[in-house]
Amino acid sequence: TDDDSATSSEVVVVEVVNIPPIVRVKNVECRAYEQCVLDARTTIDSMNDIADLNYVWDLDTSVDSNGDGIRDNDADLTGARVEYMFKKEGKVTIKAIVWDENPEKPGSAKLVITVGAADRNIIQEAGALLAGEEASPIAQVGLVLILILLLVLVARRRENSAKAKNWQRDDLDDAFDRESNLESAHKKPASPPPGFVFEQALQIAPSSVDSGDISIDELLEGPKLPDSGLPDGWSMEQWQYYGHEWLNSQK
Question: In this structure, are residues 100 and 47 in contact, taking their beta carbons and an 8 Å threshold?
Fold first, then answer.
């Protein structure tokens, strides 16, 4: 409008462009089999969008985990701050992808992490080689062979020990066994026969028995039974052991 009240107008189209988030990822040091913290909370965006940002993490840009043919757009984890346990040492490239209300124009940042060796002792290292995701077939086969060898050695040692015991037996051992068997065959009865006569017989000293009249065989086999038979209350075992003394007490 000028001073003559003449007017003119023109339409102007203004395009408001959404700026993608500026992704910032903290550097981090990690070890295998320990929790590694990935943090992108310092990402920058407009005040209207900062509270509603979406975060995804591609934990290895060399692997296409979702199978879409693109290796660096996988959503392996979600969240501004996440934790992950790497299971192999070495360098790995991760990628943080962040977007606001326009997912077609996300912001992203890559970070190369050097994953250190696992902090484990010798026993833990051996266990990892024998079981779990790090298990080595060669180590497992080797362990089986060692166990088989140990079993064979133990079996042979027992066999040799048994043979050595048999070799140590000689004539003296056989003679001792025969004598032991003979003694057990003529073992004294558990209790003497009852009766006053037998108690008198026990009071007679062994020296009073005329050893010249009794042979060794008679002592071992026992005396001949009297015509009246076994004394009352006697057993054959008792007669075999105490019979000579009973006969002497009757003289």
Answer: no
Where exactly are the structural domains of the chain?
30-119, 123-166, 186-249
Q: Is 233 helix (H, G, I), strand (E, B) or coil?
A: coil
Which string of DSSP letters, residue by residue, matches 55-93?
A: EEEES-TTS-TT-SS-TT---SEESSEEEEE--S-EEEE
**β-pair partners for 37:** 83
Q: Is the pTM of this model over 0.85?
A: no
pLDDT tens-digit profile of 193-237? 655 445 554 554 444 444 445 555 565 667 788 888 888 888 888
Which tens digits make up the pLDDT trace of 166-194? 555 555 556 556 655 555 544 555 555 65
Q: How far is C-alpha 96 from the geometric centre of its chain's CA atoms?
A: 42
What backbone phi and psi angles, to 5 degrees, belong to 221?
A: -90, -20
Q: CA 37 to CA 27: how far, in whole Å?
A: 10
CATH code, residues 30-119: 2.60.40.10
